[in-house]
Amino acid sequence: MILEDKHKPVSIRVGTVVLHGNLTIPENPSGIIIFSHGSGSSRLSPRNNYVAKVLQQKGLATLLFDLLTEQEDTIYENRFDIDLLTARLIEVTNWVKNYALTKGLHIGYFGASTGAASALRAAASLGNDIKAIISRGGRPDLAMKDLHKVTAPTLLIVGGRDDIVIQLNKKAYQKLQCILELKIIPGASHLFEEPGKLEEVANTSALWFIKNNIRR
User: Fold this and answer.
1) How many Cβ atoms from other residues are within 10 Å of residue 2's Cβ?
2) Distance (Å, rounded) from C-alpha 140 to C-alpha 166?
3) What is the pTM (predicted TM-score) of this model?
4) C-alpha closest to that of 152 among 103, 95, 201, 214
5) What is the DSSP string of 167-202?
6) What pLDDT shows up at residue 215?
């Protein structure tokens, strides 16, 4: 891998808009994880960037990108338009599959908050193209009608103090028919801001992706 390609800003045309992202490729990557952010978040999310850094240290490439343009994000309803976010994620996934530096890498999804719903719906559509999924503090219930079509091994991570989201994830757990685990992290709130909790999310995520065949 050429060193200057390790951290690469990318622009991805999707229909009439251009989405901006940050692509990081460690030497000899074993796979790539595409991040699907939650409502009001972006490629600059400090929590997702922290998780991405841990995944990179484990040999996984990462792509963090904005599902909405700056102008689109000013319209609050767009942040919960799961149809739109799913379509964008599928287009970006197809870009990753054809981009020279990532072509041939196995793909996983890391979805946070509402981004988890778009990750699950995209995976339901793309089938075996997606090898593993993680939902962090996610809203998989927003993808309920498509959950039975998800084939990729899926890990639902929820904070132990995030009572409402725990219940929503338990409902989604009953609908998913893939390899599946629900991990509740004791003492963690929705954003996993407590000391050591986001680190636990990141390390658990890395193990899940590696365990479930994110490789060439």
Assistant:
1) 8
2) 11
3) 0.94
4) 214
5) HHHHHHHHH--SSEEEEEETT--TT--STTHHHHHH
6) 59
83 C-beta neighbours (distance < 10 Å), count: 9
Residue type present at position 76: Y
Per-residue pLDDT of 69-114, as tens digits, reads 888 877 878 788 999 999 999 999 999 999 999 999 999 999 999 9
Quote the pLDDT of residue 209: 97
Cα–Cα distance measured from residue 19 to residue 12, given in angstroms and rounded to the nearest whole number: 5
Q: pLDDT tens digits, residue range 159-205?
A: 999 999 999 999 999 999 999 999 999 999 999 999 999 999 999 99
Q: Which two tokens stand for residue 56?
A: 């990179």
Q: Which position has the token pair 């400090």?
A: 46
Residue 216: pLDDT over 70: no
Alpha-helix runs per DSSP H in the chain: 46-57, 70-73, 82-98, 114-126, 163-175, 197-211
* The token pair that represents 156 in the structure block: 């639902």
Asked if the model's pLDDT at residue 40 lies above 70, the reply is: no
Around Cβ 3, how many Cβ atoms within 10 Å? 7
Decide: residue 7, CB within 10 A, 0-12 exposed, 13-18 middle, 19+ buried. exposed
Q: How far apart are the first and last CA of the chain?
A: 15
DSSP three-state, residue 160: coil
